[in-house]
Write a sequence for this structure.
């Protein structure tokens, strides 16, 4: 048997402004930037398990699947940057 890597979990350090943007809520308490919105923006990329709530720290977590994980990661980072602004310079995604 030969094991294969089929998914990788990443975390990206968020700036205070990015974290504040992701955690912003409407007056009724619903997230202004819900997970479903980000998932729609990431479709059809094989990216799942998004997490950025207060209990995850100052990070955006996500899992990349598929045969072209590096390409998927690059495409996902472009989506995140278009929605959140430039990601923390020099920090990169952490495995």
């Amino acid at each position: 048997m030969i094991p294969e890597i089929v998914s990788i979990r990443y975390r990206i350090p968020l700036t205070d402004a990015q974290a504040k943007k992701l955690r912003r809520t409407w007056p009724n308490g619903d997230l202004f930037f819900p997970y479903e919105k980000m998932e729609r923006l990431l479709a059809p990329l094989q990216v799942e398990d998004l997490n950025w709530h207060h209990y995850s720290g100052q990070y955006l977590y996500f899992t990349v699947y598929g045969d072209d994980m590096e390409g998927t990661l690059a495409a996902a980072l472009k989506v995140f940057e278009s929605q959140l602004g430039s990601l923390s310079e020099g920090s990169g995604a952490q495995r």
In short: The chain has a mean pLDDT of 88. Residues 10 and 95 are 5 Å apart (CA to CA). The beta strands are 7-13, 47-51, 59-65.
